[in-house]
What we know:
This protein is of the alpha/beta class. The protein has helices at 7-18, 79-100, 121-126, 161-164, 170-179, 187-200, 209-223, 226-233, 238-245, 250-257, 262-265, 271-289, and strands at 24-31, 38-45, 65-71, 110-116, 130-133, 136-141, 144-150. It folds into 2 domains: 7-202, no CATH class; 224-286, no CATH class.
Amino acid sequence: xxPAMNWHRLFGLILSDFFAGSPYLVELEKDLALRKxxxxxxxxxxxxxxxxxxLPDGFDNLAAHNLITFKSHQETLDDWALKELTGHYxxxxxxxxxxxxxxxxxxxDFRLYAVCSxxxxxxxxxxxxxxxxxxxxxxxRGTDVIRIVIAGQVPREEHNALLxxxxxxxxxxxxxxxxxxxxxxxxxxxLNDLFAGYQREGIAMSYTxxxxxxxxxxxxxxxxxxxxxxxxxxxxxxxxxxxxxxxxxxxxLRQALEGLSVKERLIxxxxxxxxxxxxxxKSQRSSGKRKPGxxx
Length: 296
């Protein structure tokens, strides 16, 4: 029996990749008490500067300390979950004071977020969720405001790709995987785990691992220089090249091979394979020029 998927840790790891190289640092499963109480994710500002790309919807107001609770498609975001998040915030803010030996940091240095896969109907029955934008709500709890981000409701736009990965919707997950911009090669294995987790739980993905690998190849080829493309093609068998380029449009193929000489494009192909291909192309062009007529 395979172990259950740790969706919380997977969310935090991919979030770590998302913020790689930015002014923010991601900490996972932050221990907030002598008796183990783990906050899912903390995103910390570690220095000056702006985040280079557009942040996912709902995260446009990041502060110095951003506390995030995450609920997967198997869990419920309810009033108790928000109470826990508020409790984690109190503990965390006290710890910040203890570490720095001074008064409590100002409240404006903190933000509270709850990310979930689907709309929390039970929570909406208990508290007022004020819409901010599509898929983003706010909940007022005393003087604290918790921003709630629903992965399955945010628009299907490139900057929301990270959130769509955790929507548990085959269409949205596929969009997320094909548009998420990785910052580390190791993230590919995390996305493999993500797809495997959905499959084990009976969620059929219309977007498969094969689709993901093909899209990654497109992105990698697009970003390579002609010299890097030349090196990437050397040593591949004709079968491996066909597999790597399978599914690319003629325009994408042209862009992928741009900058390579004819000789370099044909490296690894035997004379027989080249001749066979040219004869096939010649036959197709001849067939296309014939006009249909009646009878023999």
